[in-house]
Specification:
Number of domains: 1
Helix content: over 70%
Structural class: mainly alpha
Number of strands: 0
Number of helices: 10
Strand content: under 5%
Oligomer: single chain
Length: 255
Amino acid sequence: MLGFCLDVVIGIAVILLLSVATGLLWGVWRGLELAQEARQRGLAPDAQLISASLGQPGVMAQMLMALVSTAGAALVLYVWRRRASAEERRHSRAAILRRGTWGWIALVAGAIIVFSNLVSATAEAFGIEPAPTNLPLMQQAMAQWPLFLAIFAVVLAPAYEELLFRRVLFGRLLAAGRPWLGIALSSIAFALVHEVPGISGNGPLAIAQLWLIYGAMGAAFAWLYWRTGTLWAPIVAHALNNAIAVAALYFFGIQ
């Protein structure tokens, strides 16, 4: 538990540090861009005016900042705290080549989709219709950068999220012989990261619904990692889930 808590503290610290660093870099870049625009109009750059005109990062900048901060935390924790041994890598490669592993991947991915839709349909019947915190960003990205959104959601995010939540956090307690505790705690962390109270306009019941869905996803991915013995299994299942979500948003506008 001490190691798990230390991993969480380090992860939060790295995410905050990289978020601030990338935010500052964006601010400097945007300030230089505004100063150049002022010079092109024959005006002297004014620091106060530029500061007031910075605005908010665009869609691409926000996705890159999220990628750098969260993927950076995952890589730091993996390399520093939970790097795989040569034996673990050999076992993982052998596991992903087994046909049974792919069967479990398909089963878990399908179960997550069915469960999420059942929960959403039940909640909707009671008038609960939450909007995930990242939905506006995804909608804007779909309109402006659909290819990058697909790469981000289907390839990059599943890789670094599974590295962080399953290999590092869940794997810490799995290696200590406490797999069910690891599933519970890593899934809670997974749900909290995806839906932080107070950021969106969702009420308590809507947030509870999203936590239930995200927590169940995290638990399913952790169990799949435990069952198959390879991190590639939850990465692929996660990628399939995100691919279906992106496709539904692109073709049907479904959240």
